[in-house]
What does this fold into?
Amino acid sequence: MQRTVISEALAADAPRTDIRVCGWVRTRRDAKNFAFLELNDGSCLANLQCIIDEGTPAWEKLGGVNTGASVKIEGELVESPGKGQKWEVRAKDMTVFGLADPETFPLQKKRHSDEFLRTIAHLRPRTNKYGAAFRIRSQAALAVHDYFRDLGFFYVHTPILTGSDCEGAGEMFRVTTLPVEYRPKEGQSCFADDFFGKPASLTVSGQLEGEAMATALGRIYTFGPTFRAENSNTPRHAAEFWMIEPEAAFADIWDNMELGEGLIRHAAKHTLEHCGADLALFDKFVSPGLVDSLRQLAERDFVRVSYRDAVDILQKSGKTFEYPVSFGTDLQTEHERFLTEEHFKAPVTVYDYPKGIKAFYMRLNDDGETVAAMDLLVPRIGELIGGSQREERLDVLEARIRELGQNIEDYWWYLDLRRFGSVPHAGFGMGFERLIMLLTGIANIRDVLPFPRTTGSLEF
Ligand code: 4AD
Ligand code: MG
It folds into this structure.
């Protein structure tokens, strides 16, 4: 079946005497001796209007075709006399693939709440809003690959099954093949009988393996699923999300900032260039001012501020925060959003955090108190990127692992990277869903993932 996708049909520069289009009927309107079908095939936001005249073979098959039905229409692409579209199809013949019973098909032509649509995540991509969100998601992924390819970064694949806890936060999903009723034999560890013979989990980050690859290939990035069993029921946390993690050898925290800030700018630019119609929908119905804010984001420099100065600003702000701040406390979303939305009114990079609130691998600064960490904050979201320069000094890293009470043997290979030809290096992680939230104005992470996984929710 040679079909023309609707995005191409709508972009035609001349009429066509013979065209085949397929899709799902969004609406049907009946007139006296003809009917309109608005057809959408997911290739773009716009529908293609198809006219079925009485007396054509297509007309004979119209019975039961309604919102949600799937059809193929063959006919002519002609200039549309009506307003709102340049082209329309005058149908000759039609094939009905599947009907949708109007009594039970949930996506009738009316606005549905996001909450309701989450309960039908298998059907919601067929709505304008979610179709647009997932097309933007696809384009944004291309933007990420483009950006790194142009800078000479290699795309590497790090494991999803892991034996190490990168972030040391212990929020990992255990993986086992043992049956639920399994009990270890007397005096034996339960892992002895398990698939790997040791504890296994789903990865929270590909960083540690990424560092091994970067200290060989020079510049790498990963882009894959990550899993966190955080019990935080927020609009910004999912149990399964995608993360982009570049790692560059011979780079410091300042190079790292530039890389991260450039990535966000590039993603905004790319989306503006390639997703105009879909963005317009979000600008109109979801987040007024979105397109302007993305244009600014694509052009603007990030403000850079040290954690120490950021805390000072927050303390002097006169605002009452739910969580008070002082040197040594982690910044909460409310603080991050205040800095970027109200104080600087710009995207912000905060750097040099106290070592006590950051992971073991971050490079200790000369003050002995802070580490070369950086978080990139953007309006509406707060932290979009978290990263650091890595500790490349073997003795300092070992001391840090011990200080945190972690098992040094577990890190033998990671320490080898410092033992043999150690180099300064840096990297970060960007949450891909948070990027999509930024690009679309969608406020809840559950609505930028096709099938979100969050605490207590594993449908589909
Ligand atoms: O700041 P995080 O925890 O950093 C790391 O995992 C480092 N190992 C990254 C690195 O340096 N290679 O996570 C990085 C980003 C966050 O800034 C956030 O955007 C996103 O990942 N993120 C989540 N996104 C959705 N749901 C969650 N539960 C997330 N946790 C982190
Ligand atoms: Mg972080």
Q: What stands out?
A: The chain has a mean pLDDT of 96. Residues 166-167, 205, 207, 228, 230, 237-238, 241, 243, 245, 383-387, 427-431, 433-434, 445 surround 4AD (ligand 1) (CB under 6 Å).
